[in-house]
Design brief:
With 194 residues, this protein is of the alpha/beta class. The protein has seven helices and nine strands, in the order E-H-E-E-H-E-H-E-H-E-H-E-H-H-E-E. The two termini are 16 Å apart. The structure holds adenosine-5'-triphosphate and magnesium ion.
């Protein structure tokens, strides 16, 4: 991604979200993955906060692919988001974003990355199984939204409100691993596959 943007990926378990995310970040020069479900392997994996941040601070001016598997995601997201913001120039991939930003509450440092990350040359990819109730800050700043298969009535209702009635008919057409892509400023929704 040369343009620094926010991308969201929604869909139920096993629908292909993380698979797509890996494709999207294939060519990122500097990448940090907040890998709460231990789904990513292509990079240097850290499980201790100290080891991770020490390493990152040393090499942040060089290309890197870092995978962080937090023990306490809700507590550590702010620490990592602060560092992402401070060091800048990277792509930040976050799994299970619904844990850090509900409709009523968004972690402060995470919000900072969302609102001002572009100036620090940061792109953000946020992934969740449950789009319903995600903070408006995220959806309003998103440039691209990928929607995989989703059955939950609440989620589908939410997607209709967010992306329009057309999403309903498109969701019914989706085959395995296919997604519906919404792009900011572009007419219509496209179906695709990673
Ligand atoms: N486009 C694709 N082509 C081939 N295999 C795929 C594709 N997308 C996903 N898969 C495979 O399907 C499985 C589930 O995909 P993935 O792990 O991306 O799901 P997910 O949406 O991230 O699920 P979860 O919410 O549980 O993390 C994986 O084994 C993955 O390799
Ligand atoms: Mg996944």
């Amino acid at each position: 991604m040369t343009e620094k943007k926010i991308i969201l990926i929604f869909g139920k378990r096993g629908s292909g979200k993380s698979y797509l995310a890996q494709k999207l970040v294939e060519r990122e020069e500097r990448l940090v993955i907040f890998d709460t479900l231990s789904e990513y392997q292509n990079g240097v994996v850290f499980e201790s906060y100290e080891g991770f941040t020490e390493f990152w601070r040393k090499i942040y001016q060089h290309p890197y692919r870092l995978i962080y598997r937090p023990l306490n995601p809700d507590q550590e997201i702010d620490l990592i988001a602060d560092l992402v913001y401070t060091l800048g120039n990277c792509c930040f991939l976050v799994e299970e974003i619904d844990c850090y930003c509900t409709a009523y509450q968004i972690s402060e440092s995470f919000a900072h990355v969302v609102q001002r990350g572009r100036h620090q040359n940061i792109s953000l990819i946020g992934i969740t199984q449950r789009p319903y109730g995600i903070h408006r800050l995220l959806t309003s700043q998103a440039k691209e939204i990928y929607v995989f298969n989703t059955n939950e009535p609440r989620d589908r209702e939410y997607l209709r409100t967010l992306l329009g009635q057309e999403i309903e008919e498109k969701l019914n057409q989706l085959k395995q691993y296919e997604y519906i892509k919404w792009t900011d400023g572009k007419e219509g929704l496209e179906i695709g596959k990673a």
